[in-house]
Structures are given as C-alpha cells and as structure tokens.
TrEMBL record:
Uridylyltransferase (UTase) activity is inhibited by glutamine, while glutamine activates uridylyl-removing (UR) activity. This is Bifunctional uridylyltransferase/uridylyl-removing enzyme. Its EC number is 2.7.7.59, 3.1.4.-. Has four distinct domains: an N-terminal nucleotidyltransferase (NT) domain responsible for UTase activity, a central HD domain that encodes UR activity, and two C-terminal ACT domains that seem to have a role in glutamine sensing.
Length: 935
C-alpha cells in the first residue's frame, strides 16, 4: 500500500475555513444573518465540501483503505458542522456566550457516531439540551440544519433533553441503538458526558439480553427482505447477509453486552482472538472500500452491487483477469469470502455470549433453558467424543479434532443421522480445525464413508453440507470444491455463487426424493421413487459445476474431476463412469428441450444417440430439474417442465427397444382425454371441436393447465366471433407475464407480435408458437414483468394486443410501430456475448435449423424474425431460450417452396446479413451448434 501523509487524513482545514467565512462576512459590510452573506457562505462551504470529497476519492484510489476513507469523510463532516455552528453563534446570532439554559451538545449518532461515513450516507445528528428548547436554541439548530440541507446532505436529526433521550431509548430500540454510538461533536461537552453516563447506567446495564434479542431479530427480518443468502450475485452491501449492517450488529451486541467503548476493545476484552480481530478489521476495511467506491462511482447512496457496476468496481479496486476467471469474478469472489467471514465472526460472538450465560437471549442461542437457566446435556450413542446440549451437538472439549481428525467428518455424520443442530462452539472449533484436514484424511476410507453418508442422506443433506461449507471443512476435504467457494459467474442468469448453487441443487433433489415437490415435478418424483442410482445422482449434483472458473469447458473438466474423486469416495468403476457421464452431459437435456423442435424425429434420434440408456435418461431428467430450479427464483416454470417431460417420453421408447409409433399416439390420446376431463361443463360437441383443433405437438408440449386456459379462451372468442383476441396473465411469483394471442395465421405474424412487444419495451423471454387445424395461430409470449401491479400489467398486455390488431388490419404500418426502439436495458449492457449464427441441415430431415446466440436487447426477436422473413424464408417453428443477458433463438426454416436452405452461397449471405443486423462483432460459426445450454 502507498504511504500517506497523515496530514492528508484531514481533508478540511477548519481554522482556515473559519477565517474565510469571517472574511466574507466582514467584506460584505453585513452580519451573518444577511441573505447575501448566507449565499456566499453557502457557496464557499459547498466548494470546500466538494474539494474534500474529491480528495477522499483520490486517496481511496491511491491507498485502497476503505475504513480510513470513511474516517476521512467523517472528519470532514465534523469540521463542516463545527464551523457552521461557530459561524451561527458568532456571526448570525452573535451570542458567543450562551446562557446555562441555552447550552447544547451537538452529537453525531448512528453510523455517523461511529466516526465513519460513506460518500452518500445520511448525517444523523442529536442536539442534546439541558431542558426544553428555547427560541435561540431552536434558531441555531434550524440554521445548522438548513445549511446542511442546502449543501445537499441528507440529515436525520432530533433535539432532545437528556431526560427525553433516556426515556425514549427505553421505548424505542432504534433510538437506543443510535445513542449507543453517540459521539460528541461540538458545543457543551458536559451535557454529552451526562447523557453517556446515564445511558450506560440506566439503560445498557439493565437491558443486555433484551437488546441482543431485538438486534438479532431485526437482522433476521432485514435478511428476509433483501435475501436470505449471502451468496446472491447482486448483493446489497449495506443490508444484505454478510454485509456492513451485519458487521455493525455484531459490534453493537458486543459493545452493549461487554460495555466496550471502541472496536479495539473487542480484542482487549478477548471477545475475539488476535486472528479473529484481524478478520474483523479486514472485513470492515474491504466492505468500506467497496461501499465508498460504489457511492463515488454512482454519485448517490447506491447499496446494491449490480452487474452493470461490478466491472467498474473491480477496476477501481485493482482486480485483473486470470485464466478462467475475469477481474470482476475475482472481485466478487473476494466479496463473498468476506461476507462468509462476517457470518463466522457473528457465530463466534454468539458462542462467547452463550458461554457467559446470556440465557434470556434465546432467539439467538437456543441453548439455555429459560425456565431453569441450566444446560440440558445428554450423551450420544456410539461415541464419547460429542455430547448434545438442547439438541445441539458439540465436542466434549476443544482437543477432540486435534486428537483424531477423523472426528471432523464424524460430527457432521452424527448431526445428519440424528437431526442435531450445531452448537456455536462446535462451529467455531470446526472453523479453527479445518487445517487438520490433510491428504491423509482425504484418502481415509472411513472419513470418505462419513462424507458420502452425509451427501446421500435421506434426511437433510443440504443443511449439514451448508454447515460443512461455512466452516471451511467441505472445501478442505474436497479441494476442487474449495476452488469454487464464493465464486460468482458474471452473468444475469445465475442468482447465486457456484457453491451456493450446488448446495441448493442437492436440497432440491432431497425434496424431490421425499415426495415434497410432486405437483411441480411429477416425473422426477416418480423416477426417484424407484431409482437405483440415487448415490450417483447426489454425487453428480455436487460435481456438475465443480470445474467452473477453469480455462477448459467446465463440463469436460468436471468429468475429469469426477473420475478422480469418485473412487476416493468409495464408488466403483461403473458408478464412477455414470457420474462422469452425467457431469459431462449435464446441460444437454435443458438445451435440447428448450432449443429444438421436439416433434421432429431427428431431434429425438440425435438426443438418444447421446444418452444411450434409460438409466442415464432418468438421471439426466432429475439432474436437469434440480439444476434449473437451483439457478434462482423464477427461472423454473411450467413450460420448461413440460418440455423436459416431452423430451423424456419421446426418448424413452427408443432407449427401451420399443421404438414404434404407438407410445406417442398413446400419449397424445391420453392428453386429449385429460383435457376433455377438465372441460366437464362443456357440451360434448363443443368439447370435441375445440380439442380437435390442436395438432399433436401442441398437446405434447403444452402444460395441461395452459391447455385448459387456451380452450376456454378459444371457445369464448369463437362464441363472440372475434377474429383477433389476447389474454394477459401476470405471474407474480415468477415475475413474468404470459400473453395468449389468437388470430388467423400470417407469414409475418411472429415478426409483428415481437415488434409490437419491442415498441413498448416489453422483453420476450420465451415463446410457444402453434398453428391450429383451422389455420389460426395460437401463440403464447412470456414477457419479463413490467409493473408490480397486475392491473398495470393487464393494461400493458392490452396495449400490445391493440398494436398487433392495428398492424394486422392495416390501421398502422409496422415501420411506424418500430420508429423508436426501446433502449438497451442498463444491466444487460454490462455483458458481452459473442454473436454466433449457425445454419445446420443435419439436425432435421425436413428443415434447416437456424440458431442465433447473442446478447439480449429490446426488439431483438422482432429484428430477427423480420429479417428472416425479408430474406424469403418461412419460419416453421421458433424456440426462444433466454439465459440472463444471453439468448439462444432457434428457428426451423425453409424457403418459400418448403425446401431446406442448402446452397452454400445463400447460407453465407443469410449468416452475414443476420450478423450485420445484430450490430456486434461477429463470432460466426460454420460448425454444428454446441449441444449445451447455460445452466
């Protein structure tokens, strides 16, 4: 780090600033109450503040010291407030000697009271009075506040007597917390000292358990709002789990319980060891650096580290690209490791408090019997190394793991088999003992058997594996897993870090195996009920993304890891090969189901050639469900489930040797019967008519609930004689909106629909396109949610429908609709996706398959379909797959006479024209598309 001149830490020369303001006043010939003088004083203060903040930013970039930057900004704010106070008393109200009843103490409270400020932080002030406010005191306070407001600061303030402060802090936990960190700024210091003394004696000394319980409940509530996981890839640095507020909560609790005046006392009072205190200060410094850079970069109090800001933050913090990991991914991995440290430190503090009998704070310990105040202990059958305290497992002493490192894995197995929670002491000791995991322990058969028992448990494997990860044991026992701990993937598709995604996928598999997701995943539940390869499936899920962040394709590299690791875990050669195949092919089923025409026999033939066996198919189906669902909220939907089931059922007969047309016809018949059974209130003739409108592909690829909705939609509009109709269905949980469109088929219909969506900024994330036997089209477009209110969403759908109707009837021309294309979404701009345009004639016996991979943007699908149509190509089916900022749009096309596009010159022109239209540097491939998807 650079060496900084200590004088630079003071960004403002307060004495010089006072002299400047005095000179301004004297030069004007008026006193400080003059509006002209106030205007000049305000301008000078603004300039001084702006200069100070520019210095603070430059120093932060130079030395990287976040905690010191926050101190510098706080000291600059202190100087400004003191100067304004002195100017008000001396030049505005001209009362250098306030009476006893008019004395006040200007006090910094809350975050500002800690002596640290981010550039966009609020300024929290408490004006402490001896008695009630006088007119003069009120005027001075108002002058100070209005000057600060006019300078552009957000100021939280209160004016209270010492008695009021004590009374209100008893009633209000927020006020109590703010006073806990009160810091004297200026004025009458004895008043401040009286407040501190009385607050400590009357409040802090008597209410520690109450305060601790309230703060931890408040923390849990905050996590619930911003996200329970600390591994969300766009974290909130202030309020998110593992963020600054958690670190503050940790210190508040320690300060309140141990009566510590400053952070350094945490080490002196042995609340933390030297090493733990270093982790505390490093975490604090890093989080402050990131937050200060974030505020400087955006010019506002931005607390969310969003994708579009992450590259700039990484550059400011000095991160650089490494093979397999970009600079931004390295920065975010550091962030998540720090967030993990914050969680570890919180757990350590809870353990300390528990040992010192903070028994009424049961909301965070769960150990003390609140009636007796005594520990309830019992032994565990089969071991004398651990005991249970109120259903929490803990070692009998702190030397257990040192005496026998095998006990490190044993404690997790015992916890899983018996449903024990982990005592904070156990978590603390496990974190400190992870270094005892050596090569010898990794190769120990007993240790590996214990680990495999946890991983494949029928109880709660995710819960125990998560604890194993939090303590660092999992990454030490499986070093390849350790490499992806806290690793984020810089894309909009994944919501969590790689390790969090893997653990969540195992949790989902466990739920499926227990039958808890039967309605959502019926086929996966059915498979797991009789599946012989459950162990291999659990192991494959743990490893399917374990090689992320390497230069080599992660699926291929992951298969190599599986072949090396599985024998160590006790799997035989056949099991090892099964796991390795699943890892290598874990993306193929999602890719084929979402990007290929499942009604095309060639699609099924190619897929089954890859899969080769029914057991592999079953395992791949379940793994794919878990993988997609673990990506994040709203990624899984009914369409994806139906597509996977269709691909499974189309492939199953080929893999069992029963390749005939019967199974497909049978399933189509069953789907017609199921739909018919749901339309019980219909006349028989009407039911047969509407069901008979659909081709087989529609029935096989559309969820039954959607079919029922469509049937009612068709009947209603047929009765009313509507040639065109739309139906908008907002889905709140998935943050998506579906729009059903029923109208006469038209060569440019898809282009018109997508263009109208693009013209109002509606982003299409998926589409189902079907033609009915009577020549009408039934299309369903899935849009990203535009409004929180479902009524607003309905109105947006109506606007899209009205535009489509006007274009189809000739009331308005498409070029007019597309005059002003919607702007590129801010978050998408952060990503670069190379363009790939491929035309392949081997993937279908009837059609040329055109695939476009590129970065998403508003109007993309409209531009693509319009350009394809303009080249005299006929789109027979379209398959839209959106993975965050990356889209894979696949079109089955022919020329206007229904033939494949086979002329090399024409193929080249199509590729070049589409690449040019996409307006990005092309990365055009002439090879077959890779059979994989982002997952």
């Amino acid at each position: 780090m650079a060496t900084i001149d200590p004088l630079q830490n003071h960004l403002i020369d307060a004495d010089q600033l006072r002299r400047d303001l005095t000179a301004l006043t004297e030069a004007s010939g008026h006193d400080g109450s003059s509006s002209d003088v106030r205007r000049e004083v305000l301008a000078h203060l603004k300039a001084t503040s702006k200069s100070a903040r520019a210095k603070a930013e430059a120093l932060l970039i130079e030395d990287g010291q976040g905690w010191e930057c926050a101190h510098r900004l706080s000291r600059a704010q202190d100087d400004l407030i003191r100067v304004i106070y002195d100017f008000a008393v001396t030049h505005v109200f001209r009362v250098p000697n306030l009476s006893e009843g008019e004395r006040m103490a200007v006090t910094a409270v809350g975050g500002y009271g800690r002596g640290s400020l981010a550039p966009g932080s609020d300024i929290d002030l408490l004006f402490v009075l001896p008695y009630k406010k006088t007119a003069l005191v009120e005027s001075i306070v108002e002058y100070i506040l209005y000057m600060l407001w006019d300078m552009g600061f957000k100021v939280g303030h209160a004016t209270r007597s010492v008695d009021d402060c004590i009374r209100l802090s008893r009633e209000d936990m927020t006020i109590r917390t703010s006073i806990l960190e009160a810091r004297f700024l200026w004025g009458h210091e004895p008043l401040f000292e009286e407040l501190v003394e009385r607050f400590d004696k009357d409040i802090v000394a008597k209410t520690a358990p109450e305060f601790i319980a309230a703060k931890l409940a408040e923390r849990d509530s905050r996590h619930e709002k911003v996200g329970r996981s600390r591994y969300m890839v766009e974290p909130n640095i202030k309020d998110g789990k593992g963020g600054q507020r958690d670190l503050h909560t940790l210190f508040w609790i320690a300060k309140y319980y141990y009566r510590l005046p400053t952070q350094i006392e945490l080490k002196k009072a042995q609340v933390f060891s030297k090493a733990e205190f270093r982790r505390f200060t490093k975490a604090q410094d890093f989080l402050w650096a990131v937050r200060c850079h974030l505020h400087f970069l955006t010019g506002r109090a931005e607390e969310r580290i969003s994708f579009d800001l992450q590259p700039d933050l990484a550059a400011r913090l000095g991160y650089q690209d490494h093979p397999g990991m970009s600079a931004v991914e390295r920065f975010m991995k550091h962030y998540f490791l720090v967030a993990k440290d914050v969680g570890d430190l919180t757990r350590i503090l809870c353990s300390k408090l528990e040992d010192e009998q903070a028994k009424q704070a049961s909301s965070f310990t769960g150990v003390w019997n609140t009636l007796t105040g005594k520990r309830r202990q019992k032994k565990i059958k089969g071991t004398d190394q651990f005991l249970v305290v109120n259903n929490r497992i803990t070692p009998i002493d702190d030397k257990v793991f040192k005496r026998d490192p095998n006990q490190i894995l044993k404690i997790f197995r015992l916890a899983e088999e018996n449903g024990f929670l982990f005592h904070p002491d156990a978590m603390h000791l496990l974190s400190r003992s992870s270094r005892l995991i050596t090569k010898a322990l990794r190769n120990d058969p007993e240790a590996n058997a214990d680990f495999l028992a946890v991983l494949t448990s029928r109880q709660t494997p995710e819960r125990v594996l998560r604890k194993m990860n939090e303590t660092g044991v999992l990454g030490r026992f499986i070093p390849d897993f350790g490499k992806i701990v806290a690793m984020m993937q810089f894309n909009m598709y994944h919501h969590f870090t790689v390790d969090e995604h893997l653990l969540r996928s195992i949790g989902i598999l466990s739920e499926i195996e227990k039958g808890e997701l039967g309605e959502e995943h019926p086929l996966a539940n059915e498979i797991m009920g009789t599946f012989d390869h459950r162990v291999e499936l659990y192991v494959a899920l743990l490893m399917h993304d374990i090689a992320k962040g390497r230069p080599e394709d992660h699926s291929i590299a992951g298969a190599k890891v599986a072949r090396k690791l599985c024998p160590r875990l006790g799997l035989d050669a056949a099991q090892t090969e099964f796991v390795a195949w699943l890892v290598e092919q874990h993306l193929v089923m999602s890719y084929v189901s979402q990007s290929r025409d499942l009604g095309d026999p060639k699609t099924i033939s190619d897929f089954t050639t890859t899969v080769q066996s029914l057991d592999r198919l079953k395992a791949l189906l379940v793994l794919t469900v878990c993988d997609i669902k673990a990506v994040g909220p709203g990624v899984w939907n009914g369409w994806k489930g139906q597509l996977l089931r269709t691909l499974y059922y189309e492939s199953e007969p080929r893999l069992t040797g029963g390749f005939t047309a019967a199974p497909r016809k049978q399933r189509v018949l069953e789907m017609r019967e199921q739909l018919s059974a749901r339309l019980t209130d219909w006349e028989e003739a009407e039911r047969k008519r509407v069901i008979g409108l659909h081709y087989d592909n529609y029935l096989l690829n559309t969820p039954l609930e959607h079919q029922v909705r469509h049937a009612n939609f068709i009947r209603e509009n047929d009765l009313n004689g509507n040639f065109f109709a739309i139906n908008t269905i907002p889905h709140e949980f998935e943050a998506m909106t579906a729009i059903d469109i029923l109208t006469a088929d038209h060569p440019n219909l898809l282009s018109i629909i997508t263009g109208c969506c693009a013209s109002i900024g509606a982003n299409i994330v998926d589409a189902q396109i079907f033609t009915m036997r009577d020549g009408r089209a039934l299309d369903t477009i899935l849009l990203s949610r535009g409004f929180d209110d479902p009524n607003d969403e309905k109105r947006r759908g109506d606007r899209i429908g009205d535009l489509i109707r006007q274009v189809l009837t000739g009331e308005i021309y498409m070029p007019e609709v597309m005059k002003r294309p919607a702007p590129l979404r801010r978050r998408v701009q952060a990503f670069s996706v190379p363009v790939e345009v491929t035309l392949d004639n081997t993937l279908s016996n009837q059609f040329t398959v055109l695939e476009v991979v590129c970065r998403d943007r508003a109007g993309l699908l409209s531009d693509l379909t319009g350009e394809i149509t303009a080249m005299s190509l006929d789109i027979k089916s379209a398959h839209i797959a959106t993975f965050g900022a990356r889209v894979t749009d696949t079109f089955y096309i022919t020329d206007l006479v229904g033939q494949k596009i086979e002329n090399p010159t024409r193929i080249k022109k199509i590729r070049e024209r589409l690449t040019s239209m996409l307006d990005q540097t092309p990365a055009v491939s002439t090879k077959k598309p890779r059979k994989k998807a982002v997952a």
